[in-house]
Amino acid sequence: MTSWLIAEDRPAGPASPTRGFPCSPLPSSAGPTSASLLCSIAWQAGASPSCTICPGVTRDRREAPGRLADLSFRIVDTAGLEEAGPEVLEGRMRQQTDRALTEAHVALMLIDARAGVTPLDAHFADLLRKAPIPVILVANKCEGGAGKGGLYEAYGLGLGDPVPLSAEHGEGLGVLYDALRPFHDAHMAEEAKAEADAAYAALLAAGAQARDVGPDGAALDALEPDDIELADGEDNDFAVEAIDPRGERPIQVAIVGRPNTGKSTLINRLLGEERLVTGPEAGVTRDAIAVDWGWGGRRFRLVDTAGLRRKARIENSLEKLMVAETLNAIRLAEVCVLLLDANMVMDRQDLTIARMVVDEGRALVIGVNKWDACTDRGATLQRVADRLESSLAQVRGVPNVTLSALQGRGLDQLMEAVLLVHGRWNRRVSTSRLNRWLQGMLERHPLPLGKHGRRLKIRYATQAKIRPPTFALFMTRPDDLPESYVRYLTSGLREDFDMAGIPIRLLFRATKNPYA
């Protein structure tokens, strides 16, 4: 699949998308440009609506699958190009853009046609001209006649004919298609040739290792094709095993927490590369960035999220969008890792985030980060245990792991805990076993009397769904069942069926007999 890189040349504006063969958008001038292009091409693939709000939103590389007519590709949105050293945030953002350029097959350089070509545009055009990949110049905001002047000026950048485009209104995508088509076809041809060469090499290697003797001891090279007997259902063509193109579904893991707890650093350490922008500043991450990764023979999709502050401290619209995207990442996740600072564990905001995860029915793992800098480890662990016991009693047994993302300690234990709770979160109990368990629970503690002095009865139970485990119980007058008995059943399920640390939902349904 081809990769596109969308690049902008001024303070980073919103992202731009494209995917089919690798293409990369570079940041453009102040104002929504590359991100708006990403939204117009790959909106359904998860482009962020924040791209239409204000310039300078994009910081990390954001990838999304895109499609333009019959072209499919992966588009990479990048931060705006700025000249700065690696010791400042802008310099680290620039490093991410440079990495995206080395991985892409085509770069789209976006300029603001209404603002015209600026000296900064010309400076970064010189840099891109030396890049090892082809560059397509895109003049954005060309709707109407306001951008004609900037469009004509763009010819002077020496990057070929500019593509007039309006990402916000979807105009000019046909011209962009014509510009991308030759690169897409060339990339597909290279991939097909590489696959054919690899298959041929594997065939030669297999032939060299195979014994040249048939089942009756005769040399295979001395046999005629008609002398070889085929088993029923075989033919002379190569047998191809049917393979699911999607493969095993990756486990979606969202890393959540307060600002500056080391979420991006943790993902970088797991990946073994500086994939995300990090730094000592709080609130560096703005978008929810998903990255595919493998560990222990399993596939994961790690999602880095923006730090969640207290609701009273959220003022501007950009931070509200960041919070909304983080909450959406929690809803789409299967396991959430709540990352804590070892020197400030389990304050009110940490518990609020944990409750959000539990209320959404997601499996939860507590990660105590910066363990190498912890001043009082015994007191820290005791505080975590006490707060979980008192404030998250509904999910007793949540695993907590101490780690240091900066030094790479405790990462294997963290992933083992993720797999453990994911297995519990997917657990299914057979109906017969569940009803035998229910009978024992009712015998140990009979149901109380209802409001009208008649004893309640639970007649039948079944597991309605998994992820999280949800059980339906059919009974008489469910509205009369006290909350204490619900907790008794939930605790029994958690202990007897090894579901510690995950949310369990009980649904009580009234029987059809009104006189029961």
Automatic annotation (TrEMBL):
Associates with the 50S ribosomal subunit. This is GTPase Der. Residues 251-426 form the EngA-type G domain. GO terms for biological process: ribosome biogenesis. GO terms for molecular function: GTP binding. The keyword Flavoprotein does not apply. GTP 1 binds at residues 77-81, 140-143. It comes from Pararhodospirillum photometricum DSM 122. Residues 1-27 are annotated as: Disordered. InterPro entries: G_ENGA (IPR031166), GTP-bd (IPR006073), GTPase_Der (IPR016484), KH_dom-like (IPR032859), KH_dom-like_a/b (IPR015946), P-loop_NTPase (IPR027417), Small_GTP-bd (IPR005225). Keywords: GTP-binding, Nucleotide-binding, Repeat, Ribosome biogenesis. It comes from the Bacteria. Belongs to the TRAFAC class TrmE-Era-EngA-EngB-Septin-like GTPase superfamily. EngA (Der) GTPase family. GTP 2 binds at residues 257-264, 304-308, 369-372. GTPase that plays an essential role in the late steps of ribosome biogenesis.
